[in-house]
Amino acid sequence: MKPDVLTLLKALQLSLENGKSLTNALNLLQNTAKDKDERAIYINITRSIQEGASFSNAIEKYISPSPDIIQFVAMAEKGGGFVKTLKSVVNYLEIKNRFHQESNDKIALPVIYFTLTAIIIIFIRFFAVPFHISEAKSYDPRIYAIIAEHLDMALILSNLLLGGLLFFSAYFLIVMIALFNYSGAIQGVAKRIASHLPISSLVIGYFEKFILLSLLSEMLKNGVSLKMTFKTAANSTIIPRISKQFEGILAQVSRGEKNFWSIPFFEEIEQHLLAGAGTVAQLGNMFGEFADRARFNALTMASKFFRSMTIVAILLLSFAVFVEFFTIVLTQVLIQQGIIDQVGHA
C-alpha cells in the first residue's frame, strides 16, 4: 500500500519545522509506518536521496503522485525556503482534496442507478426472455408466434436501453477518471476526451485552471521567476490546448513582449487585472484569487454535471423498469389472452 502524499508531505513539513533533516524525518516515518509496503517505500525514498536523487524524483519513482504535485515539490526544492514552500504544497493539497471530497459525495446516486439498470438489462436478456420463449413453445403455434414477436420487441427495447446505458456510463466514467485518477497516462487520455465533451469540458477546464493557478501563485510568492513559472505551467497541464497557450506566453516573455495575457485560459476581466499588475508579488496574489474563483466555478459545474447524470440515470432506470414490465407482465397477459381466445374459438 502506497503512503498518502498529503500525509507524507505534512509529516515532513512538521518534522522539518521542528529542526529535523529530511532524511531524519523520513527515518521517523519509516519507524512509525504500520504497513510493511509503506515502510519499504520510505526506505527506498531515503536511499534514493542518500544516493543523490532529488526528493521530487524519489517520490515520483516510488509513490507516483499526479504531475502537478511533482512540479510543486520540485518548485519547493528550487524556490525559496524548502519548509515554507512545502507548507504551501500541503495547503494546496488540502484544498484539492476538499474539492475531491465535495465532488465524491455526489457520485453515489448515478453509480447506484446505473448499476440497477445494468442488473435489469441482464435479467431481461438472459433470464426473462429465454424463459418466456421456452414457456411459449408449449402453447399453440399461433400463441407462440404472438409471444415471439412481442419478445423480439422486448429485445429491441433492451438493446436501446443497453446502448443508452453504455453511452452515458462511459461518459460518466471518463469524467471520473479525468477528475480523480492519479495515473498520469490514463488521466491524460481521459482529460483530453472529457475536454471535448459537453458540460464535462467546463468542469475539466475550471478544475485544471484551479490546479495551475494555485501552482503558479505559490511559485511567484516563493520567488520563482515569471519565465520559469510559465514554463512549469506549460509542462504541468495534461490538456494540450492549455499547454500551447502557456507556451505562447513563454515565447512572448522570451521576446520581451508585455501584453501576453490575452489567452482563452484567462477570462477578459482577469486579463485586464493581470495587465495592471505592477509586481510579481501582485501577480502571485491575483493568481491565488483567480484559483479560488476557478475552484468555486469547478464545484458549481461539477454539481451541475452530477445532477444531470443523476437525472439521466433515473430516466434510464425508469425505462428499464418499463422494459421489464413489457417483458414479464405483458407477456403473461398475452399468453392468458391467447389461451382465452383459443378456448373461445374451440
From TrEMBL:
<dbReference type="InterPro" id="IPR042094">
    <property type="entry name" value="T2SS_GspF_sf"/>
</dbReference>
<dbReference type="GO" id="GO:0005886">
    <property type="term" value="C:plasma membrane"/>
</dbReference>
<keyword id="KW-1003">Cell membrane</keyword>
<comment type="similarity">
    <text>Belongs to the GSP F family.</text>
</comment>
<feature type="transmembrane region" description="Helical">
    <location>
        <begin position="153"/>
        <end position="182"/>
    </location>
</feature>
<keyword id="KW-0812">Transmembrane</keyword>
<protein>
    <submittedName>
        <fullName>Type II secretion system F domain</fullName>
    </submittedName>
</protein>
<feature type="domain" description="Type II secretion system protein GspF">
    <location>
        <begin position="213"/>
        <end position="330"/>
    </location>
</feature>
<dbReference type="InterPro" id="IPR003004">
    <property type="entry name" value="GspF/PilC"/>
</dbReference>
<dbReference type="InterPro" id="IPR018076">
    <property type="entry name" value="T2SS_GspF_dom"/>
</dbReference>
<keyword id="KW-0472">Membrane</keyword>
<feature type="transmembrane region" description="Helical">
    <location>
        <begin position="107"/>
        <end position="133"/>
    </location>
</feature>
<feature type="domain" description="Type II secretion system protein GspF">
    <location>
        <begin position="11"/>
        <end position="130"/>
    </location>
</feature>
<feature type="transmembrane region" description="Helical">
    <location>
        <begin position="311"/>
        <end position="335"/>
    </location>
</feature>
<dbReference type="Pfam" id="PF00482">
    <property type="entry name" value="T2SSF"/>
</dbReference>
<keyword id="KW-1133">Transmembrane helix</keyword>
